[in-house]
Structures are given as structure tokens and as C-alpha cells.
Amino acid sequence: MGIGSVIHNQQTVFIDPYTKHKVIRLTQPDHTSHHMYFYNRMVTGDSKKMLYCAELEKSRQLYLMDLETGDAVQLTEGGELDDYGAMIGSDDKTVYYQQQQKIWKLDLQTLTRTEIYAAPQGWRCGNWGMSEDNRYLVMTETFVETLPDLTGKKGWEFFPITCAAKPLCRIIWVDTVSGEVRNVVEDRCWFGHAQLRPHDPDTIMFCHEGPYDMIDARLWLVQSDGSNYRCARQQPNDVIITHEFWQPDGKQFFYVYRKAEDGTTETIRMMDPETLTEKLVMPCLPYAHFICDHQQKYMVGDCQGNETPIHLQTEGQEESVKNDFIYLIDTQTKTEQPLCYHGTSWTPDHGDPQDAHPHPCFTPDGSAVIFTSDKDGKPCVYKVFVDKQ
Predict the structure, then answer these.
(1) pLDDT reported for residue 388
(2) Which of 74, 248, 354, 388 is most enclosed, with most CB atoms within 10 A?
(3) In which residue ranges of the chain is pLDDT below 50?
(4) Torsion sign, CA atoms 228, 232, 236, 238
């Protein structure tokens, strides 16, 4: 199989036995499939096509699926593909993705690609994001020689080991039109999740990555010229803060906050990036990931029935999970409604620690939520319909 090949996904429709919501399994459980990282633009503006990854013939590649028919066109081939980091362009005619330490722009009509950025020798591309018009790109990069040896390690073992190594990392900002590249900030600290502020590509949010009890603080901001590098929020080592994202209008960013040891209820919080003023939005269930819809009226989160942080869970703990549901969150009424049971294992057994994470996100029209689960076998992509009444 190669670029331009078409596969047909046999979709399975069912009613969730707990919530009675309609759910469609979009892929088959005999091979691993997953959608993109949850804050990437992975569904076209008309909510009809979805960018996802499928592992077929022992190779993970990107596909664009027609959500009505299940037919999917193969977009990539070859190795060294970042199978979580791709995104659909704002014009719905292009896809941006990372492969072989380069960022590529793919024309969906001709299926030809153009290189828009290449990491210098010795540096490894990491998490990346783009402005809403796709002109500006921001990325974390790591100097390979400073990474720890992970030979023989598997699953979430890499998380504390990499954090403790304090690899040399930097934030790169790219103007894809002029070709300008800036080394924004560089430090012996593991960087992750670089995101540009909507409507303000000069402001970058990223995290100091690693276990909550090993990092200095998670949330950081910096301007594209390297100025005003600041910690957005102090973080005692008994506090867990995840999984930050920008509000679509760029006015605030959100995250969840929880005390690790005393059982304090998790809360959704928001922050003004200019004043660093924090506002408590509402108490919430223990979500691994959450994000708001395009209309900024609702949020969706993947609840972890096991409240032990993922990197601290031990084998067998998944048996105690009781509340692995996808939830619809109404921040106006401060209520949470279960959409469906995701039932994923949260394990790294399928090849990547992220593969069995639900990573829920809304379709642009807000009518459905896309998520991943391995409850039926290997990870599959699902679509649950949203009833907001």
C-alpha cells in the first residue's frame, strides 16, 4: 500500500448501554488506529472528514477518512512518522505532518508534499503547533546526545527517566512564508506541548514536561523573540496540573488542578496570559485530557476511574477502574453528563504509551465527540453523538 491507496473501514453502530447515546466505531479492532492529538485540527470544517493513523502491514501511516462512508485515503508512506502530530490545514485542502525530522505540507488534491521546516542535525523534533492560518509554526526540539538511554525500557518508564536527565531542549518559532526561524528559548529542561496563542502568534505556551513531583512547574509562557519567559503558575510538588490548552478565541487558557495526596476534588481553572490571573471555573471529575468545543460553550473530558497518575500506576490497578467515561461538561451550569463508556485500558501495550488514551475532542459543528479506546481489542477510533439538551 502507498500514498493514494484507499481502504474501507467497516463502521459499527451501537447504543451505549449506560447513557443510551449513539456511538459509531469508525475502525476495526484487528489493527491499531487512533486520531491525532486532541488539540490538533483533525476534522474538516464541515465535520465530514477525519485525519487519523492506522497501523496496517506493520506500518503506521496517516489517512483521511470520509466519516459517512468509512473510505480512507492513505496520505503518507515510509518510516519516522510522527503519527500523533499531524493536522488539517485551515483551508481543508492541506495536511501538515512531521516525518524524518521535517515538517511537511501535503496538498490533498495532488497528494504531493512540500518541506516547510527541517530540524538541524543532532536535534529531534518534538511536540509542535501552528497558528490558525498555518503561517506560523512552533516546536519543541531536543538535542539527541542529552537524552537518556531507554534501551529495554517500555511504557511509562521513560517519563521520569527522561525528566531526570534534563535534556537540552529549545523552542523553535518558524514563519513558513518568509522562512524566518527563531531559537526562542533553550534550557536543560524537558520541554513539551508547544502551542501558539490563537490570534496572537507571538505568544507561545509550553510545559516543563515530566511527573508532577519532579518538575519545577508545568505552565510556561514566552514571546516569539524570547522575551518575557515566565512561569505562568507556581506549582507545589503535591499538585498535579494538566492538560493545558488555549481557548479558541485566545483570551484564556485552561487546565485542571488537583492535589495529589489528600483526595482534593479536581478543578477546571482558566488563566489570562497577560495578567496571569487565575480563575476557578468548576470542580470536575479526574480527567486525563479535556478540551472545549469551537463555540466555547461546552467541554469534553476522558475520566480516569483510577485517580493514580498514569505514570505511577502499576500492573493490575486497571481492575479497580470504575468510571472510565467520556463526559460532556457544561461550564455555565457547572454540570457533567456522561456521554459513553470509553472503557480503555490506559496501558502502553500497543506500541506507544499514548495509544490507549481516549484524547476526546469535538467535531467542528459540536454534534459529536471523537475518541480512541482499546475496549474491543486493539485501539479504535469512535464517534459519540452529543445531545446537549
Answers:
(1) 64
(2) 74
(3) 311, 317-321
(4) negative
Show the cell assigned to 348: 502502553
Separation of first and last alpha carbons in the chain: 44
Cell of 237: 510538588
One DSSP character per residue, 131-184 reads -TTS-EEEEEEEEGGGSPP-TT--GGGHHHHHHHH--EEEEEEEETTT--EEEE
Number of H-type helices and E-type strands within the chain: 1, 30
Q: Look at residue 319 in the predicted model and tell me its pLDDT.
A: 45
Cell representation of residue 16: 451505549
CA distance 349 to 197: 34
Measured CA angle at 171 (ends 166, 177), to 5 deg = 160
User: Whole-model pTM?
Assistant: 0.94
Sequence-distant contacts of 131-136: CB under 8 A, at least 24 apart:
131/196, 131/198, 131/201, 132/90, 132/198, 132/199, 133/90, 134/89, 134/90, 134/91, 134/94, 134/96, 134/176, 135/175, 135/176, 135/177, 135/201, 136/173, 136/174, 136/175, 136/176, 136/196, 136/201, 136/224
